[in-house]
């Protein structure tokens, strides 16, 4: 007991001597430090060692590196949102041995180094990168960093609001413990094989507010590979033409897994706008069914071609009929001309083949 009292006194003395950095607000009782909208250009030095919750937001910090958070071994929650950060170096958070939640939302990340998110003991559980990627090339750096940072304990990843138009193959394949994946409010148009490979523990996947017009067979197989996941697929511009039928059938079978299944509706064409996707199979889309012969459009093309050719044939026969006398005369003239030519060749042949007449031919030639 005496030893505990002495240690407590030492800790309190250390804490009492801690000075709050300029531009920050420190609360030892709440173990929290806030440096909010103070026009800071760097991570302030002298942050108290007792800090568990650190909020440095709304400033003008362009880069962070390994020297930024030295000595902050007790920090569990770190928010760096809306700081205009453009570069994160490798091992930036290596000194944060207890870090569980990292918020980098609302930044302008251009360069993300490999192992940028590495944390000792792999304690990181939640990573928020919403509205943080500056351009489409940043997602390639992110994919490399998610692989090399060894985030095997990460459970929540937020990539919403980044304008993503594609996801690199196997971008999440090294996040085996991931349970929540937020991809809402992007511009994704398709899901390919391997997009969600290795996410065996995933429980929630948000794909709402993207640019999906439908989910094709490849995407449906990928979603079927996540049988325990709660899906969010709303507010996409679904186009209710023939291509949406497989998705509509899948949705009817899997609506228990889709949180907003009843709210999914057609955006195009205008005649079907706001029609529920669940009921779109009952709407006449003019689609041909499997086993019913060639595609309807192809059938229509063949019929039209046959009509055109038939009309041309009839016109040809009609022209022949109108000119039958002239055609008959031309045929007779051609026959007589051919006969005269043939008789001339025959006569010449008889002269050439009879020696008695050869001198007649020679005299005629002279």
From TrEMBL:
Keyword hit for Transmembrane: yes
UniProt-listed SMART domains: LRR_TYP (SM00369), LRRCT (SM00082), LRRNT (SM00013)
Signal sequence residues: 1-16
Any Pfam family hit: LRR_8
TM region positions: 302-322
LRRCT domain: residues covered: 236-288
SUPFAM superfamilies named among the record's database cross-references: L domain-like
Domain LRRNT: residue ranges: 19-53
Transmembrane helix keyword on record: yes
Annotated PROSITE patterns: LRR (PS51450)
Keyword list, A-Z: Leucine-rich repeat, Membrane, Repeat, Signal, Transmembrane, Transmembrane helix
Protein name in UniProt: Trophoblast glycoprotein
């Amino acid at each position: 007991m005496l030893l505990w009292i002495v240690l407590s006194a030492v800790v309190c003395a250390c804490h009492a001597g801690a000075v709050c950095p300029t531009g920050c607000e420190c609360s030892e009782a709440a173990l929290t430090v806030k440096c909010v909208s103070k026009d800071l250009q760097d991570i302030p030095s002298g942050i108290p060692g007792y800090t568990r919750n650190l909020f440095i937001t709304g400033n003008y910090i362009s880069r962070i590196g390994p020297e930024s958070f030295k000595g902050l071994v007790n920090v569990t929650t770190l928010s760096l949102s809306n700081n205009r950060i453009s570069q994160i170096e490798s091992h930036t958070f290596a000194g944060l041995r207890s870090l569980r939640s990292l918020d980098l939302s609302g930044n302008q990340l251009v360069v993300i180094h490999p192992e940028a998110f590495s944390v000792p003991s792999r304690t990181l559980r939640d990573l928020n990168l919403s509205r943080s990627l500056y351009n489409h090339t940043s997602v390639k750096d992110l994919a490399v960093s998610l692989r090399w940072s060894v985030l095997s304990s990460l459970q929540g990843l937020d990539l919403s609001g980044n304008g993503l138009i594609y996801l690199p193959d196997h971008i999440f394949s090294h996040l085996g413990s991931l349970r929540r994946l937020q991809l809402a409010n992007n511009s994704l148009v398709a899901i390919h094989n391997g997009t969600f490979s290795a996410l065996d523990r995933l429980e929630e996947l948000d794909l709402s507010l993207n640019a999906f017009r439908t989910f094709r067979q490849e995407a449906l197989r990928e979603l079927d590979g996540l049988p325990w996941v709660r899906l969010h697929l709303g507010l996409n511009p679904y186009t209710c033409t023939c291509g949406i039928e497989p998705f509509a059938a899948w949705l009817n079978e899997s609506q228990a897994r889709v949180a907003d299944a009843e709210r999914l509706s057609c955006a195009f064409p205008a005649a079907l706008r706001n029609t529920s996707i669940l009921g779109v199979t009952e709407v006449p889309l003019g689609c041909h069914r499997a086993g019913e012969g060639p595609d309807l459009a192809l059938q229509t093309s063949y019929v039209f071609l046959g009509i055109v050719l038939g009309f041309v044939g009839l016109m040809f026969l009609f022209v022949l009929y109108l000119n039958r006398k002239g055609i008959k005369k031309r045929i007779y003239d051609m026959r007589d001309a051919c006969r005269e030519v043939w008789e001339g060749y025959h006569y010449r042949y008889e002269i050439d083949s009879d020696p008695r007449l050869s001198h007649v031919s020679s005299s005629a030639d002279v």
